[in-house]
Write a structure and sequence with these properties.
The complex is a heterodimer of chains A (about 375) and B (about 500). By secondary structure, chain A is mostly helical. Chain A contains 13 helices and 2 strands; from the N terminus they run βααααααααβααααα. Chain A has one domain: Amino acid/polyamine transporter I, CATH 1.20.1740.10. Chain B contains 15 helices and 12 strands. In chain B, strands 1-2-4-5-3 form a 5-stranded antiparallel beta sheet, sandwiched between helices. A 5-stranded antiparallel beta sheet of chain B has the order 6-7-9-10-8, with helices on both faces. Chain B has a two-stranded antiparallel ribbon with strand order 11-12. Classes of the chains: A mainly alpha (about 375), B alpha+beta (about 500).
Chain lengths: ~375, ~500
C-alpha cells in the first residue's frame, strides 16, 4: 500500500498549514508582537528544508521502514529509543489537533456540545481511517486539498481590504530577542512534517515530478503568510484575544456577529481537513507504538491511540487549555529532538555505517 | 450411436419428458428414415420450411454422386441450406442443441446427429433506453437478445481485435453470457479474473445481468455500486475503447462493465457529442446535484436545530417566519417529507403509465400544497426535499444508494449537527477512497490524482486532443495511445 510522490507532497502541504490557522497567530503575538509573521516564515522555511532532508533519507532507505532504517544506521537500542520519542511527539500533535478541533467546533458551531458527542464520532472516523492505512488518508487529502486552499484564499481576500499595513511597523520594535523566544515557545506548532518518518518505505517516487514538493511547500508558506498577515493586519494588539485565526477573519469580514454566507462552508471544510490530519498523526502514532514495542498486529496500537484521544478529550473538558501549557513547556524540546536533530543523526549514522561496510568489504576482498 | 432414427427419437422424447412443445416429423431420405425434431415455439417456421423441408423433399432420389457418399455428408453438403450445420456425437449434446433452438436431424444407422440453427428470435425492437436518453447521438439501445446485442456491437466495431467469449451460466436456465473486450486494449489479468468468477458461478438460473453483479463485486455487501452498466452500444464500445470489459447476458438489455469508477456515472454519452465548454458546466452541475441530493436535507435539519446562529440574519428571519407554528421538529418534518417522497416514487414507478400523471398531481400538488397549508410542514422543508429528490435523478443508476445516504444524513444532522455531517462526509470519502476493485481506484482520477485522465473529468478536451486512454482504468499498459501507434500523436 504505497502512496505516490504527489500524495506525499499534499500530505506535507496539509500538515504545514494544519496547526497554523487556529490559535497560533494569537498566541505568538504575545511574545513577538507585530513581527510574529517573520517567526512563522523563518520556522516554515526551516521546516521546508528539513522536508527535503527527510525526503533524501526516504530515498536512501529504499524499501526499509523507519525502524529497520534506524536499526541499520544507529543500531536497535538507539532505534527503539528514537521510536519512543517519536511516539511522544505524535501523541503531542494528536492532542494538539484533537483539542484544537474540539474548541474550534464548539466555539464556531454550537452553543453547547458535550465532549462525548464530539469525541465519539471523531474516534470512529479516526479508527476507520487509521485501519484503512496511509493510502486512504492520502487520497482523502487529495480530494479536500483544493477546496481548503481556495476556501482559505477566499476568506483572506474577502477581508484584505480591512488590513492596516501600518500595524506591522515599526520592524523589530523590541529587538530580535523576542523573536527567538517566540520561536522556541511555539515550536510544537511547527515541525509537522515529522509524520514523514512513518512513511519510510511507503512512498513510490517513480512517477514523481521534480518540483512537486517544492511547489506545495511554497504554496503552504504563501497561504500561511497571507492568512497571518491578514490576521495581524486586522486585529493588531487585540490578536491574542482571537483564538481562531480562520473563523475570526471571516467573522470580521461579515461585519456582524454571524459568519457570512459562504465562510461557514470554508470553516466546515477546515474541520474536515483537521479530522484528516488527526487520522494522519494517529496513524503515525500507531506505527511508532508498533515499532517501539515490537507489536505485530494493528489492533492494540489503534486501540491505544483511540483511548488516548478519548482520554485527552475528557481531561481537556475538565482542565481548560491544559494542553497549551503542557505543549509549550515540554513539546518544544521534543520537537527539536525529533524534527531537527533526528534527521541529522540519521544522516551521520547512515554515512558512518556506509563507510564501515565499504571498509569491511575491502578487508574481505 | 448407429441405431434407428425412431428409437433415437423415442429416447430423446423420453429424456425431455415427452414435453408437448417438442415436435417431430419423419421423412424419407434415400430410402432411410429421417426424423426432424425441434421445439415448435422457438423454431422459425419460415426458415424451417425453406432451408430444411423444401430441399429435403426436392432432392433427386438418386444421383451418381449420392451413391458414393454417406448420407450424413450428403445431407450436410448438398441438401441443407443453413448457414451452420452442427454435428452432435451424443444424444445429450443433441438435446442441449434442441433446447437452445436448434433443429436436429436423425438418420437411421448414422453415427452422428445433425443440427441446424433455426432459432426464432422473439425480442423487442431496437429502441432508445428510457434511462439513457440523449439529445444528440445514437439512439439505439440494447434489447433482451444477446445475439441482437452482439450484432449491435459488431456493427460498430469491425476489427479482429474484438473478442467475444460465450459461456452458459445457470444449471436450469443455461443462460448465455458473453464477455466482450478489445484484445489489445483490455487488461488480460482482469479478463481472466472475470471469466474465472463467471465460470465458478453455481446457480439455478440467471434471469438478468444483475444476477451476476454480486458474483463480480469485490465487496458484495457494500452499498455502493461497483460494476458499471451500459444500455446502449455506443456507450459500451466507448467504455471498451478505454479498456473496460463488457458482460452481456441473454435476456437482459443491460450490459455490465468492469472496472467501474465513480466518475463514470457523471459522464453521459451526450457529453461526447456536445461542445466541451458546455460539457464542463453540465458535469460540475451534476456533481453539485449529487452533493445536494445527499446532504441538503441533513444540512437543513442541522442548521435549523443547532446552527441557526451561523445563518445570515435576513435568511434566518425568512426561515423563522415560514417555520412558525409548525408542530413538528425540523427533523420529523424532513423525515416525514423524505418518507413521503420515497412512497410516492415507489408508487409512481410501479403504477400503470396512465395513472402516473394523476399520481404526480396528487403527490406534488395536493399532498404538498395541503400539508403546507395545513401547517404540518414548512415551505422551505418541502423545497429542500423536492430539490434533493429531483437531483437524485441526475444519475438514475445511483438513485438507490443516494436515497439511503440521504436518510443517514438526515438522522446524523438531527443527532450531531453540522459537525456530525462533516464527519459523515469524510467517512464516506474515506470509505470510497479505499474502494479498489479490478486494479482500479474508485475515486480515480481524483484520488489518486491522474494527470492524463483530467482530460475527461470535468473539462472534456476535444476528441482530437484525447490521445491517451485513461490510466485510471486498468488496461493494457503497452497500448495506451488511442490511435494505436505513438507516431500518430503528431496528427
Amino acid at each position: 500500500m504505497k502512496i505516490n510522490y504527489r500524495q506525499l507532497s499534499i500530505l506535507v502541504f496539509m500538515s504545514f498549514i494544519a496547526l497554523k490557522f487556529l490559535a497560533l497567530p494569537g498566541l505568538m503575538y504575545v511574545d513577538s508582537a507585530n513581527m510574529s509573521w517573520l517567526v512563522t516564515l523563518v520556522l516554515m522555511i526551516v521546516d521546508g528544508i528539513y522536508v527535503f532532508l527527510i525526503l533524501d533519507l526516504m530515498k536512501k532507505c529504499g524499501q526499509k521502514n523507519i525502524f529497520e532504517f534506524l536499526c541499520y544506521c544507529l543500531g536497535p537500542v538507539l532505534a527503539r529509543a528514537f521510536m519512543a520519542v517519536l511516539v511522544v511527539k505524535y501523541a503531542l500533535v494528536v492532542a494538539n489537533i484533537s483539542k484544537g478541533l474540539e474548541f474550534f467546533v464548539v466555539e464556531n458551531f454550537y452553543n453547547d456540545l458535550k465532549w462525548l458527542v464530539f469525541v465519539l464520532p471523531l474516534i470512529l472516523l479516526t479508527n476507520f481511517m487509521v485501519y484503512k492505512g496511509i493510502r486512504n488518508i492520502a487520497r482523502v487529502n487529495e480530494i479536500i486539498v483544493w477546496p481548503v486552499l481556495f476556501g482559505c484564499i477566499y476568506i483572506a481576500l474577502k477581508s484584505i481590504s480591512g488590513v492596516d499595513l501600518f500595524n506591522f511597523l515599526p520592524f523589530f520594535k523590541d529587538g530580535v530577542a523576542p523573536l527567538f523566544s517566540s520561536g522556541f515557545n511555539h515550536l510544537s506548532w511547527f515541525g509537522s512534517s515529522g509524520f514523514m518518518f512513518m512513511l519510510f518505505g511507503k512512498v513510490d517516487f517513480s512517477n514523481g515530478k521534480k518540483y512537486t514538493m517544492l511547489k506545495y511547500i511554497f504554496l503552504a508558506i504563501a497561504l500561511t503568510m497571507l492568512m497571518h498577515v491578514v490576521f495581524y493586519g486586522l486585529f493588531d494588539v487585540t490578536s491574542p484575544t482571537h483564538s481562531f485565526c480562520l473563523s475570526d477573519i471571516s467573522q470580521f469580514s461579515s461585519g456582524h456577529s454571524s459568519i457570512d454566507e459562504l465562510s461557514w462552508l470554508v470553516v466546515s471544510l477546515w474541520v474536515t481537513a483537521q479530522a484528516v490530519q488527526l487520522a494522519l498523526f494517529s496513524f503515525c502514532m500507531m506505527q511508532a507504538i508498533k515499532y517501539t514495542f515490537n507489536i505485530k498486529n494493528d489492533v492494540f496500537p489503534i486501540l491505544f491511540v483511540l483511548i488516548y484521544i478519548f482520554t485527552w478529550s475528557f481531561i481537556g473538558e475538565n482542565t481548560v487549555r491544559l494542553e497549551v501549557v503542557f505543549l509549550s513547556a515540554f513539546s518544544s524540546i521534543i520537537t527539536i529532538l525529533v524534527q531537527y536533530i533526528l534527521p541529522i543523526i540519521i544522516y551521520i549514522g547512515y554515512a558512518v555505517n556506509n563507510v564501515k561496510r565499504k571498509k569491511g568489504a575491502k578487508c574481505k576482498s | 450411436m448407429l441405431v434407428d432414427a425412431e428409437k433415437l427419437k423415442l429416447q430423446i422424447e423420453s429424456k425431455l419428458h415427452n414435453s408437448s412443445d417438442l415436435k417431430s416429423r419423419s421423412v424419407q431420405f434415400f430410402g432411410s428414415n429421417c426424423v426432424i425434431m425441434y421445439i415448435a415455439d422457438i423454431t422459425d417456421n419460415v426458415l424451417f420450411n425453406q432451408t430444411l423441408i423444401f430441399p429435403l423433399m426436392n432432392f433427386p432420389l438418386e444421383t451418381d454422386e449420392s451413391k458414393n457418399k454417406d448420407k450424413i455428408t450428403l445431407l450436410k453438403q448438398k441438401v441443407l441450406l443453413n448457414q451452420e450445420v452442427i454435428e452432435y456425437l451424443t444424444v445429450d449434446e443433441a438435446i442441449s442443441g434442441v433446447l437452445t433452438g436448434k433443429t436436429i436431424i436423425l438418420l437411421d444407422k448414422a453415427n452422428k446427429i445433425l443440427g441446424c440453427d433455426l432459432e426464432l428470435i422473439t425480442t423487442r425492437p431496437v429502441m432508445e433506453p428510457p434511462t439513457s436518453v440523449v439529445i444528440k447521438g445514437p439512439r439505439e439501445g440494447f434489447n433482451e437478445s444477446i445475439k441482437n446485442n452482439l450484432a449491435l456491437i459488431r456493427k460498430r466495431v469491425r476489427t479482429p481485435d474484438l473478442v467475444v467469449q460465450l459461456m452458459e451460466i445457470g444449471e436450469l436456465t443455461k443462460t448465455q453470457v458473453g464477455v466482450v473486450y478489445f484484445d489489445s486494449v483490455a487488461d488480460k489479468s482482469i479478463v481472466k479474473e472475470i471469466t474465472k468468477r463467471l465460470k465458478a458461478i453455481k446457480i439455478d438460473g440467471v434471469l438478468d445481468a444483475h444476477y451476476l453483479i454480486s458474483y463480480l463485486q469485490k465487496k458484495p455487501k457494500s452499498l455502493f455500486k461497483q460494476i458499471g452498466d451500459a444500455e446502449k452500444p455506443d456507450i459500451l464500445v466507448g467504455k471498451m475503447l478505454e479498456g473496460r470489459i463488457g458482460i452481456l447476458v441473454d435476456g437482459s438489455p443491460i450490459v455490465l462493465t468492469v472496472p467501474f469508477v465513480l466518475i463514470e456515472d457523471l459522464q453521459n454519452s451526450d457529453d461526447y457529442y456536445s461542445q466541451p465548454i458546455r460539457v464542463m458546466l453540465v458535469r460540475i452541475l451534476r456533481l453539485l446535484g449529487v452533493i445536494m441530493a445527499v446532504v441538503l436535507p441533513g444540512v437543513y435539519v442541522a442548521l435549523e436545530i443547532y446552527h441557526y446562529k451561523i445563518l445570515p440574519t435576513e435568511f434566518l428571519v425568512t426561515i423563522m417566519n415560514t417555520t412558525q407554528g409548525i408542530p413538528f421538529s425540523p427533523f420529523v418534518e424532513i423525515l416525514f417529507l423524505v418518507v413521503l417522497f420515497e412512497i410516492l416514487y415507489e408508487a409512481n414507478l410501479r403504477m400503470p403509465q396512465y395513472f402516473g400523471m394523476a399520481m404526480s398531481i396528487v403527490g406534488a400538488l395536493i399532498l404538498g400544497e395541503t400539508t403546507v397549508n395545513a401547517g404540518l410542514v414548512s415551505p422551505p422543508a418541502v423545497m429542500i426535499v423536492a430539490l434533493s429528490g429531483i437531483t437524485f435523478y441526475i444519475i438514475p443508476s445511483q438513485a438507490a444508494q443516494f436515497s439511503v445516504l440521504r436518510l443517514c444524513a438526515v438522522v446524523i444532522g438531527a443527532c450531531l449537527g453540522l459537525y456530525g455531517m462533516l464527519i459523515f462526509c469524510v467517512f464516506i470519502l474515506s470509505y470510497l477512497s479505499s474502494f479498489d476493485s479490478y486494479k482500479t481506484a474508485y475515486l480515480a482520477p481524483t484520488a489518486p490524482y491522474i494527470d492524463n485522465d483530467q482530460q475527461d473529468l470535468f473539462k472534456r478536451v476535444n476528441i482530437k486532443e484525447m490521445k491517451k486512454r485513461p490510466k485510471s482504468i486498468a488496461n493494457n499498459k503497452h497500448n495506451l495511445t488511442r490511435r494505436g501507434r505513438e507516431d500518430d500523436d503528431e496528427n
